[in-house]
UniProtKB/TrEMBL annotation:
Belongs to the methylenetetrahydrofolate reductase family. Keywords: Amino-acid biosynthesis, FAD, Flavoprotein, Methionine biosynthesis, NAD, Oxidoreductase. This is Methylenetetrahydrofolate reductase. GO terms for biological process: methionine biosynthetic process; tetrahydrofolate interconversion. Pathway: Amino-acid biosynthesis; L-methionine biosynthesis via de novo pathway; One-carbon metabolism; tetrahydrofolate interconversion. Gene3D superfamilies: 3.20.20.220. The keyword Nucleotide-binding does not apply.
Length: 317
C-alpha cells in the first residue's frame, strides 16, 4: 500500500521505522533481529536506506596501493522485498542520485516495480567520504528533483529509451527530504524552502524530515512550508541521542543543533547507559509533543538502537 493511502485512512498518529542494510557479508537475519522487537507495535511501513560505494585504498602484494570502489551496505532493494514478505508490512527504499547513472536508476525502479514495492524516498545523497562536494555520476542526476522527475516520468510510462512506446506505467508514491534546520549547502532557509517547494510541485507526495532535537524548529519549519504553499504531509524523522560522542558527531554529520538542556544533561552522565536514559526520556517527550501537535506519523531512525526505540514507542503509543 502507498504511504499516501496509509495517511489517508489513518485515524491516529501512525508509526514507522527506518533501518540500514547490514554490512556486506552479514545475513538478512541481522535485519530481522533488529526489527523483531519493534514489529509488535505494528508500524505502517519500514524505510530502508541506500548507500553509495566508497573509494578505499587496498594494499597489493607488491606493497603498493590500489584505489577500489567498495559498497559496504548493498542490498536495499532485496531487503525491502524481504521485509515485505517476512512481516507483511510495506517497505520504502531510499533511492539516491549519488553513485548511479539514470539507466542504473531506471533498472532499480523496474526491479522495485516488479517486486511490488510502490513507495520510494527520492534523495540526492551526499558527497563520497573524503570528497568536498557532491558531483553527479556521468549520466546521473545533480539534484533530488531530477531523480523525482525520472520517477514521475516512469509513472507516466516514459522510459529513458525513446523507442519504448506505450511503456508500462509504474505507480510509485514518492517522498522527498526536508530540513527543519536547513540543508547545510543551502545559503539560507528561504532558498532551501524554494527548492523543497519545487520538489513538491514536481510531484512529491510527502516530505520526510532530517532528525531534529528541538520541536520548535520542526513547528517553525511546518509553518514556513504551509506559508510557502507546501501542503503535502510532513513526517518528522526522530533519532535518540545516546552518547556523549554524539554531541559532536550529530551536528557535524547531520548539521543539527542539540538544545542546551539536552546537551547539559548528557554532559552530566557518567556512563553510556545514563546517556541512553537521558536520550530516551528526551525522545519520549519530543514524541508526545509532536503527537499532540498532530503530526501524521512518528518516524524513528532505529540505527542500531532498537531497544531504545522500543522503550520510546512503548511510552508514546
Ligand atoms: P536535494 O533536494 O537535491 O538538495 C540538495 C541541496 O541542493 C540543498 O541545499 C538544496 O537547497 C539544493 N538544491 C535543490 N535543488 C536545487 C536546484 N535545482 N538548484 C540548486 N540547488 C538546489 N543519504 C543517503 O545517501 N542515503 C539515504 O538513504 C539517505 N536517507 C535520507 C533520509 C532522509 C529523511 C533525509 C533527510 C536525508 C537522507 N539522506 C540519505 C541524506 C541526503 O542524501 C543528504 O542530506 C543530501 O545532502 C541531500 O539530499 P536531498 O534529497 O535533500 O537533496
Amino acid at each position: 500500500m502507498k504511504i499516501t493511502a496509509h495517511l489517508a485512512k489513518a485515524t491516529d498518529t501512525l508509526l514507522s521505522f527506518e533501518v540500514l542494510p547490514p554490512l556486506k557479508g552479514k545475513s538478512i537475519s541481522s535485519i530481522y533481529d533488529h526489527l523483531d522487537p519493534l514489529m509488535e507495535f505494528k508500524p505502517s511501513w519500514v524505510n530502508v536506506t541506500y548507500h553509495r560505494s566508497e573509494s578505499m585504498f587496498k594494499k597489493k602484494t607488491d606493497g603498493t596501493f590500489e584505489k577500489v570502489e567498495v559498497r559496504k551496505r548493498p542490498g536495499t532493494v532485496g531487503i525491502c522485498a524481504a521485509i515485505m514478505n517476512h512481516y507483511k508490512v510495506d517497505a520504502v527504499p531510499h533511492i539516491i542520485c549519488g553513485g548511479f547513472n539514470m539507466r542504473e536508476t531506471e533498472d532499480a525502479l523496474i526491479d522495485l516495480n516488479f517486486l511490488g514495492v510502490h513507495n520510494v524516498l527520492a534523495l540526492r545523497g551526499d558527497a563520497p567520504k573524503n570528497e568536498a562536494s557532491f558531483d553527479a555520476e556521468p549520466g546521473g542526476h545533480n539534484y533530488a528533483i531530477d531523480l523525482l522527475k525520472q520517477i514521475t516520468n516512469l509513472n507516466a510510462g516514459i522510459y529513458l529509451d525513446e523507442d519504448i512506446l506505450n511503456g508500462g506505467k509504474t505507480d510509485f508514491c514518492i517522498g522527498v527530504a526536508g530540513y527543519p534546520e536547513k540543508h547545510f549547502e543551502a545559503p539560507n532557509p528561504e532558498i532551501d524552502l524554494r527548492y523543497l517547494k519545487e520538489k513538491v510541485d514536481a510531484g512529491a507526495h510527502y516530505i520526510m524530515t532530517q532528525m531534529f532535537f528541538d520541536n520548535q524548529k520542526f513547528f517553525a519549519f511546518v509553518d514556513a512550508c504551509r506559508k510557502a504553499g507546501i501542503n503535502v504531509p510532513i513526517i518528522p524523522g526522530l533519532k535518540p541521542l545516546t552518547s556523549k560522542k554524539q554531541l559532536s558527531v550529530l551536528p557535524r554529520v547531520f548539521h543539527v543543533d542539540i538544545p542546551s538542556t539536552l546537551s547539559n544533561d548528557i554532559m552530566k552522565c557518567k556512563s553510556d547507559a545514563e546517556c541512553e536514559q537521558v536520550g530516551t526520556e528526551w525522545l519520549i517527550e519530543q514524541s508526545k509533543e509532536l503527537r499532540k501537535f498532530g503530526v501524521p506519523v512518528l518516524h524513528y531512525y532505529t540505527l542500531g538502537k532498537p531497544k531504545v526505540i522500543r522503550n520510546v514507542v512503548e511510552q508514546v503509543f
